[in-house]
Amino acid sequence: MAALNAAAQSVEARIDSIELLIGEQAHVTLTVTANENAKVVFPGYKRAEQLTPGVEVLDSTATEKKRLDNGQAAFSKVYTLTSFDDTLYYLPPFKVKVDGKTIESKSLAMKVLTFEIDTTKLDQFFGPKDVQDNPFSWDEWRLSFWLSVLMLLLMVLGGWLFVRLKQNKPIITRIKIIHRLLPHQKALKEIATIKADRLTTAEDSKEYYTKLTETLRKYIEERYGFNAMEMTSAEIIDRLTAEKDQAKLDELTQLFQTADLVKFAKYSTMINENDANLMSAIEFINETKLENQPTEEKIIPKLSEEDEKTKKTRRWLKTLIGIIAAVAIALLVYVVYAIYQLLV
Question: pLDDT at residue 328 above 50?
Fold first, then answer.
């Protein structure tokens, strides 16, 4: 037993048996007496770690604390030792830390004995036996069996749901993208057609101005957003004036007046007058056109209530089939591994 002079602290090592046969176990109890609030750290050994060459530490208990008088306490820990060589072992002192200071116990001795075998009486020993098969145990196979049954049921259910999914045809929605010409592009294209038709002679003036004014009315309706097709020429000019867009209004007013005279008063025009009005229409369109506008329009079809229900059902079936497949695969891996462990 080693004692500290500064305080009533000591560490004691005690072995329950100093002699044991090969493979038997001995227990060393390490007891520290110190202040009950002291921090005691016992030596730690891993399983099968050698305390000294030839002596292994099999196990150790948790630290126990027992209160004593005068504010003292006894801290104890038990180590289980064994050895497989017959000899006398010297066990070195155990080192314990108490409040950061190292205290050593006394050294111990342990003698390991062997026993003699009488080789003249071999009949008393059983001879070697052949390899034997272990008997079938339902307890070992029960879990794997029922998990296999569950896996098969899940596979059948997943297959049935897959067939249902195939029978329930998917809802295919196609988004249409329509390319549109801008208002000024359409108007200029139609004016080019009018010009190409060469409806510029006196006898064709009515048809010429009818097509030209209809083109302008369509352009103004799309450009400014009011129903120019149902308005008179004067109403269109007044509306454009209200829009505070004076670009080429004088030429446009002249064009509409000429067109009204041709259509309603049988007014005859000259070819150069027709060309001038055509150029006025083109200039008005170029002066008032809006560029950099979107030329594509997406048309997304709206699904019916029945189609929405079908789409939701298919989504639910896909999710359920995925979950069932994942669980079935996990069960398959576990069952195969469990059977392998039983067979090896």
Answer: yes
